[in-house]
Design goal:
This protein is of the alpha/beta class and 103 residues long. Helix content is 45%, strand content 14%.
């Protein structure tokens, strides 16, 4: 979490018009990040983990994430990587280990 907040603040410091779309596993993470970083949005989730509603919400998050300009992702996140693949690898994807550029 610390890496995300630090990196998001760095990106915002470079360009204060930058906005962020969060796709988090927990409401607590959404609250912590959105409290620490400006211009953050996310879709409120009502579905439980692995429920039909939860899966639908996850697919919606994937679709939205795949339409962004840049992805900050957990290292080895299959979820973020799938969103990147869905985009046609059209934007960079960054983890704490480095950046893969658009192809």
């Amino acid at each position: 979490m610390e890496w995300y907040i630090r990196r998001m603040r760095e990106l915002h410091a470079r360009d204060d018009s930058v906005s962020f779309f969060l796709s988090c596993d927990t409401r607590e993470a959404e609250i912590e990040i959105s409290s620490a970083v400006p211009n953050v949005s996310f879709v409120k989730k009502a579905g439980r983990y692995n429920s039909r509603e939860g899966l639908i919400e996850s697919v919606a998050d994937l679709a939205l994430l795949s339409k962004t300009d840049y992805i900050l992702a957990p290292y080895w996140s299959s979820f973020a990587d799938l969103a990147w693949q869905m985009s046609g690898r059209a934007m960079p994807i960054e983890t704490s280990q480095g950046v893969k550029n658009a192809e």
